Amino acid sequence: MSARPFRLAALAAAVMVAATACSGSGAGDGKSEVTMWMYPVIKDEAKSKRYWAETEAAFEKAHPDVDLSIQLQTFDKRDAQISAALAAGSGPDLVLITPDQAATYHKLRGLLPVDEAVTEDRALFDPETLEAATFDGELYGVPVFQNIYTTAYNTKIFADAGLELPKTWDDVLKAAPVLAKKGIAVMDYAGSTEQTLNLSFYPLLWQAGGTVFTEDGKDIAFDSPEGVSALRFLVDLKKQGGLPAEAATDGPAVEGAPIAKGEVAMRAVTFLPEVKQMRAALGERNVALGLPLKGKVQATYGNPGLLALTSINKDENREAAYKVLSYLGSARSQESLNAEAANFPTRTDAKAPGSGPDFRTLGATLRYTNPGEPSPAARQVMASLAPYIQAALGGDLSAEEALKKAAEEARAVLARS
């Protein structure tokens, strides 16, 4: 989303989606209507359509008094789409969002609390996933799955070069010139401004011991010495041929990308669906998962997917919306979804979607996950910072200059918000 004031952006975009879907106000046959916007949690489009159609039918069979409409959306311009719907007062009753989005929409009074939807099962949810969705003492999203991102290696590249798998920043920097001589970048990086910084720069910032915001959320902190250290790590890698040539503008795609062509040795922030794509391209035995990289500390991104109740929902449909939230947040539903999406459950009574080395590694990674830094201005701050990271990777600015300029813009965003 652009760095313009959030309300203006929402109003400007409202015309695009105001007519796409309307919150139900009660069907003519006496049923309550609930509309839900779901995003590509299941990466395979055909599987996603089939799964959510079956889920909708199963819910309606169990709750014949509710007409549920699950509408599949794309991640492209998700913030603009949701904010436009909230501004127009026309759109979904329920929507899948992240904790930082929840902070933003809560601040704008676009969400309603959902404590009543988890009253009976609250003690069965991982407390940290509930905490990520709690603002002013109330719950503003039911966590239905947990994303876990960590490191993936092309083990054949490292073995052929006689190198151990890098576990720290120093290891990566030492491996970079060795692999560069072979025409291989040691690590990829998705520097596109369309990519969330939660999956590119922020994990490195956290590994350096830094944060995006100060502890009270009132100021920017990414221009700290720790932030400079994280960006210098990327810049130094780029200078050594340790990143792909187009790292500043590359997106996160695997298919057709250097990581799938054997031109990159590792991906520092990835999750299981991408790993499966890497194995399909490189061979099952040539790709392995590892724990997050360690700079000053080990850290990575891992957030709960939250089903939030929007302010669009009508009073007469409130109980029906709670029923949907309770159904999709149940252990049975979480196990079903995670079997398709390869995510982890947010409940202690729900099983992980698999076993074996990958799931052991992902389970061990949970202790290092950071759900992001919730702030009403989180997405706008990302939009301010991302172009300056590109400028540093392109050699136009030093790491210090880039973060200083980005911080100036980001502080103006905070002041407006």
Task: Provide a descriptive summary of the structure in words.
The chain has 15 helices and 13 strands. With 417 residues, it is an alpha/beta fold. The protein has two domains: 211 residues, 3-Layer(aba) Sandwich (D-Maltodextrin-Binding Protein, domain 2), CATH 3.40.190; 192 residues, D-Maltodextrin-Binding Protein, domain 2 (3-Layer(aba) Sandwich), CATH 3.40.190.10. Strands 1, 2, 3, 4, 7 and 12 form a six-stranded mixed sheet that branches. A three-stranded antiparallel sheet has the order 9-8-10. It has a two-stranded antiparallel sheet with strand order 5-6. Strand 1, helix 2 and strand 2 form a beta-alpha-beta unit. It is globular, with a radius of gyration of 22 Å. It starts with 5 loop residues before the first helix and ends with a helix. The N terminus is likely disordered.
Q: CATH top level of the largest domain?
A: Alpha Beta
Q: What's the helical proportion of residues?
A: 40-55%
Ranges where pLDDT stays below 50 over 5 or more residues in a row are: 1-26
The total count of helices amounts to 15
Name of the CATH homologous superfamily of the largest domain? Periplasmic binding protein-like II
Structural class category? alpha/beta
Morphology: globular
How do the helices and strands follow one another from N- to C-terminus? HEHEHEHEHEEEEHHHHEHEEEHHHEHH
Residue fraction in strands? 5-15%
Task: Give the gist of this structure.
The chain is of the alpha/beta class. The protein has 15 helices and 13 strands. Strands 1, 2, 3, 4, 7 and 12 form a six-stranded mixed beta sheet that branches. Strands 9-8-10 form a three-stranded antiparallel beta sheet. A two-stranded antiparallel sheet has the order 5-6.
